[in-house]
Design a protein that fits this description.
heterodimer, A: 541 residues, alpha/beta, Pyruvate-ferredoxin Oxidoreductase, domain 3, Rossmann fold, 8-stranded mixed sheet, 7-stranded mixed sheet, 18 helices, 21 strands, 37% helix, B: 263 residues, 11 helices, 36% helix, globular
C-alpha cells in the first residue's frame, strides 16, 4: 500500500498541525509516513498545505500522485487529486464531497482553526482508520485541552461515515508504531545522544525548529539552549564554550552562516570543535525563504577565509540526520575542527517515521592531555591532533593568530610553516577515519549506470533508480571528499541529482575524479518527487 | 603559576597598555590561588597582545567579539573567572551590539576596554570615541561624527557595574578591576589611555581625570558619566546573573524517552 493525500488551507488554518496529526495517525496504525509541508513567509493568509504519503514500506519523499485533497478554503484547491473533500460551510463545489467543518466548530463554540480536527475525523473515516486511535492521539498531544479537538474529530468522522465513501480500507498493519519526527528533531536528538550540552542559535527558517525543539526538551536532556543577539554572537559564543570544554552545536541557514564566516575561520585556526547545522533554503540572499534548495554545498566547503580542514556531512533523511549529527559531533571533537551538518528545507521540516538505533550513537572521548609537564595546546604530532586540556586544570592558550605550540602569537616562517602543515594534515587523518568507519557513502541500490546524489534528494532518487534499474549512491561526507571510494565511477555513466542550477556535487566529481556527469537539477524551491525523477532520468539516459 | 610570560612586549614605549597590564598583574597577585581560574579573552588591536603577556589561560579572539566569548566560557564552566580586554575600536565600533547585549544579559564576567580613542594598530583612524573633528589618516578634514560616551551607554543599557579608570593611575585601576571581578554580574570598566603614536592625550588626561563616588541611582550615575574625566565606580547594582537562569542542570531524561513521546 502506497498513497498520498493533501490537506490545504491558508496560514492560520492549522494545516501543519493537521498534517502532523495525520502523519502520526497513520504511524499509529503501523504505517511508514512522510509529510511534506508547503507554506509561505507570512503568519496569516496565503497558501498552506500538508502532503502526506503513507506506505507499508519505508518512504523518504512525498509523491506527485495524490489521490485525495481535503481543502479548507476555496483558493486552496491545488494538487490535482481526483477526489476532493471540502468545507461546505465555506464554499460549494460542483463535484467532490462537502463537509460543514466550520459549522461543527461553531457548534462547539470553538475558533475556526479547530476545523482541522473535523478534517482529521474525515481522513480517519475515508481511510478506514480507528477513531479511538485519533482520540487517543489528540489526548496524548494536548492533554486536558484535547477535548474540543476530540469532539470535532468525532463530528467529522460521524458525518463522513454517513455521507462519504471509503477511499481505502487501510486499517492497521499490526506493526508497532514508529516515532514521527522531522529532520531537525532527529539531528538535535542525534547530537544530544553524542553528548551535546549546549545549543546556540538565532532563529532562521528552516533551522528554527531545532531551537524550539531543544528549548522544549533541553532542560530534561541537560542541554543549555541560548538565543544570543545575532549569528556572529552565536558562533563566537560557541567558540568560548568549546574552549572551556563544552560540547556545543549552533544552527542557522545560509544567510546566518554567511555572518559566521570570520568565526568559522577562527575555529579552524584555533582548532576549536564546534558543530554547525546549516539548513539550506532557496537563496541567494533572502531568496524564497520558506522553500527548499541545495545551493550551499560549495559555500560550506569553502566557508571561512584561508585554508583549514573541516568536516561536512549531509543526511538523506531523519534517521540519517540522527546518525550524522551524532557522528559529526564526535568527530569534530576528535579532530578539533569545525564541522557542518548540511541540511536542507525538505529534510529539516518534513515529518517522517524514523526509528534510529539510539544505542549505536554514544559520546566518544577525544584525546586528552595526560597532565605531564607544561601543557602545550598546539603540540606538534604526526596526526596533527594535539591532546586537549581545559582551564583551570591547565594553562590553555588559544588564539586566532598563527601561534607556536604553546599558543603564543608567532610569525616566523618556520613556525608558520610547521603549524599550518600540522593543521592541514588532519585532513588525511579524517579521511582515513571516515574510510575505516565506512561513513562517507551509502549505496541505496546497485546498477551499472549510477545516480550520485546528496541530502534530501537521495530518497526520491533512490526510488526512481529502483524503478529504472540504476545504481544510486549518496555522498554523505562531502569534506573530506571520499574520492578513493568513488574511483570506480570512472568510465561509467553518471548522473547527479541535486536541487540547484550549476551542479555542486557534479563539480566535485569533476574536480576529484575527472568524471563528467550529467545533471538533473531543480531550482524552483520545490523538492524532487520520485515520479518526476523517474521521468527526468529517463530523458537523460 | 607565573603571572607574566617570557614573551617580549611589543607595545610602544609609553603606551597606556603598560599601566593596564600592571594593574591586572596586581589583581592576579591579589587573587592568589583564584588566579588559576582566570581566563583572559582579548580582541584585535594593540591591546589584544595582552593575552601573550599574562600567564593565565587565554583566548585571543577576533575583532569586536570579546563579550560573547566571555559568555560562552562562563556558560561552559561557572568556576572560571572570565576577564575580557577589548579596544575602543573593538568594543565600541566593530562589536558594539555585543556590548549592549552583554549589559542586558548580565553574565558574571568582567570587561576592560582600552579606550585610547583611536585605531592604533591600523596606524591612526578615528574610532567611536575620537572627538568630533579628529584628524586621522581616513579623516584628513576631521572626523564628522559625535563621539560615544561608553560609560553612559552601558549605564543606560542596564549594566550592573560600570566604572571608568585611567591607565596612568594603576592603584585605582587595579582596585576597579578587582571590584569588577568581585561584582557578581557583568562588570564594565572603560579605561582612558593615551596612544603615544596616534593620539597622545597623556597631558590632558593626567590634568583632568578625577575620582568620584558612585551614583546612588542610574540617573545620578548617568550625570557622573557625562563628565568624560570622572573616574571610579560610577554605578553598581546587584542583579540576577544570566547563567543561573539559562544553564541546564543534570539530565533528568533520555533521548529514548523523548523519541518514545514522539510515537
Amino acid at each position: 500500500m502506497d498513497f498520498c493525500f493533501r490537506i490545504s488551507g491558508m496560514a492560520g488554518d492549522g494545516i501543519r498541525g493537521a498534517g502532523t496529526v495525520a502523519a502520526k495517525l497513520f504511524a499509529r496504525h503501523g504505517y511508514h509516513v512522510f509529510a511534506h509541508f508547503e507554506y509561505q513567509s507570512l503568519i496569516r493568509g496565503g497558501y498552506n498545505a500538508a502532503v502526506v504519503r503513507v506506505s507499508d514500506s519505508r518512504v523518504g519523499a512525498h509523491s506527485s500522485e495524490e489521490e485525495l485533497l481535503v481543502a479548507l478554503r476555496e483558493d486552496a484547491l491545488h494538487g490535482g487529486a481526483r477526489l476532493v473533500v471540502y468545507d461546505s460551510s465555506m464554499f460549494t463545489l460542483d463535484s467532490g464531497y462537502g463537509v460543514p467543518m466550520k459549522e461543527f466548530a461553531e457548534a462547539e463554540g470553538a475558533p475556526e482553526i479547530f476545523r482541522n480536527a473535523a478534517a482529521l475525523g474525515v481522513v480517519c473515516w475515508v481511510y478506514g482508520l480507528e477513531l479511538e486511535v485519533l482520540r487517543q492521539l489528540y489526548r496524548d498531544l494536548y492533554g486536558r485541552k484535547a477535548e474540543v479537538d476530540v469532539r470535532l474529530a468525532e463530528a467529522g468522522y460521524s458525518y463522513a461515515s454517513r455521507e462519504l465513501p471509503r477511499v481505502r480500507e487501510a486499517g492497521s498493519t499490526g506493526e508497532r508504531p514508529k516515532p514521527v519526527l522531522t529532520g531537525n528533531q532527529a539531528a538535535a536528538l542525534g547530537a544530544v545522544k553524542a553528548g551535546l550540552r549546549y545549543y546556540y542559535a538565532y532563529p532562521m527558517t528552516p533551522s528554527t525548529q531545532v531551537l524550539h525543539f531543544l528549548a522544549g526538551v533541553g532542560e530534561k536532556l541537560g542541554v543549555t539552549v541560548v538565543q544570543p543577539e545575532n549569528e556572529i554572537a552565536v558562533a563566537v559564543m560557541a567558540a568560548g564554550t568549546a574552549f572551556a570544554g563544552g560540547r556545543v552545536m549552533v544552527g542557522t541557514s545560509g544567510g546566518g552562516f554567511a555572518l559566521m564566516q570570520e568565526a568559522f575561520s577562527m575555529l579552524g585556526m584555533a582548532e576549536l570543535p564546534v558543530l554547525f547545522i546549516e539548513a539550506q533554503r532557496a537563496a541567494p540572499s533572502t531568496g524564497v525563504p520558506t522553500y527548499h534548495a541545495q545551493q550551499d554545498l560549495r559555500f560550506v566547503l569553502h566557508a571561512g577565509h584561508g585554508e583549514f580542514p573541516r568536516l561536512v556531512a549531509s543526511p538523506a533523511d531523519a534517521e540519517d540526520a540522527f546518525y550524522l549529527a551524532g557522528e559529526l559531533l564526535n568527530l569534530v571533537w576528535r579532530f578539533q575542527v569545525p564541522g557542518v551538518l548540511l541540511m536542507d528545507r525538505y529534510l529539516c521540516e518534513s515529518a517522517t517515521t524514523a526509528e534510529p538505533d539510539v544505542a549505536g550513537v554514544v559520546p566518544e572521548e577525544p584525546e586528552l592531555w595526560r597532565g605531564e609537564g607544561e601543557y602545550r595546546r598546539y603540540a606538534l604530532t604526526p596526526s596533527g591532533v594535539s591532546p586537549l586540556a581545559f582551564p583551570p586544570e591547565a594553562v590553555v592558550k588559544v588564539t586566532g593568530n598563527e601561534h607556536d605550540e604553546a599558543g603564543f602569537t608567532a610569525d616566523d616562517a618556520e613556525t608558520v610553516r610547521e603549524m599550518y602543515a600540522k593543521r592541514m594534515r588532519k585532513e588525511e587523518a579524517m579521511a582515513e577515519e571516515l574510510e575505516r568507519r565506512g561513513s562517507s557513502l551509502r549505496w541505496w541500490c546497485e546498477g551499472e549506470d549510477v545516480v550520485v546524489t546528496w541530502g534530501s534528494s537521495v530518497p526520491a532518487a533512490a526510488e526512481a533508480c529502483e524503478e529504472l534499474g540504476l545504481g544510486c549512491v549518496q555522498v554523505r561526507y562531502l569534506a573530506p571528499f571520499p574520492a578513493r571510494e568513488l574511483e570506480h565511477l570512472r568510465g561509467r555513466r553518471v548522473v547527479c541529482v541535486e536541487c540547484n542550477y550549476s551542479g555542486a556535487l557534479r563539480s566535485l566529481l569533476r574536480e576529484h575524479l575527472c568524471v563528467e556527469a550529467e545533471l538533473v537539477g531543480r531550482w524552483d524551491g520545490r523538492p524532487f518527487t520520485p515520479e518526476e525523477l523517474t521521468r527526468r532520468l529517463e530523458e537523460v539516459l | 603559576m607565573r603571572l607574566r610570560t617570557s614573551q617580549k612586549i611589543v607595545w610602544c614605549p609609553g603606551c597606556g597598555n603598560y599601566g593596564i597590564l600592571r594593574a591586572f598583574i596586581r589583581v592576579l597577585e591579589r587573587l592568589g590561588e583564584d588566579a588559576r581560574r582566570v581566563v583572559v579573552v582579548s580582541g584585535v588591536g594593540c591591546h589584544g597582545k595582552i593575552a601573550d603577556y599574562v600567564g593565565t589561560s587565554s583566548f585571543h579572539t577576533i575583532h569586536g567579539r570579546v563579550p560573547p566569548v566571555l559568555t560562552g566560557i562562563k556558560l561552559a564552566n561557572r568556576e572560571l573567572i572570565p576577564v575580557g580586554f577589548a579596544g575602543d575600536g573593538d568594543a565600541y565600533n566593530e562589536g558594539i551590539a555585543h556590548l549592549v547585549h552583554a549589559a542586558r544579559k548580565n553574565t558574571d564576567v568582567t570587561l576592560v576596554v582600552h579606550n585610547n580613542s583611536v585605531y592604533a594598530l591600523t596606524t591612526g583612524q578615528a574610532t567611536a570615541t575620537s572627538p568630533k573633528g579628529f584628524r586621522g589618516k581616513s579623516t584628513p578634514r576631521g572626523a564628522p561624527e559625535e563621539p560615544l560616551n561608553p560609560a553612559a551607554l552601558l549605564i543606560a543599557s542596564g549594566a550592573g557595574f560600570v566604572a571608568r579608570g585611567f591607565s596612568g593611575n594603576v592603584a585605582q585601576l587595579s582596585e576597579l578591576i578587582l571590584q569588577g571581578i568581585s561584582h557578581r554580574g557583568f562588570s564594565f570598566i572603560d579605561v582612558l589611555q593615551p596612544c603615544v603614536a596616534f593620539n597622545n592625550t597623556w597631558e590632558v588626561l593626567r590634568e583632568r581625570v578625577h575620582p568620584v563616588e558612585p551614583g546612588r541611582s542610574r540617573e545620578e550615575a548617568l550625570k557622573l558619566a557625562y563628565n568624560p574625566f570622572a573616574t571610579g565606580v560610577l554605578y553598581r547594582e546587584a542583579k540576577p546573573v544570566y547563567e543561573d537562569s539559562v544553564v541546564a542542570g543534570v539530565p533528568e531524561g533520555t533521548v529514548e524517552e523523548v523519541l518514545e513521546s514522539l510515537r
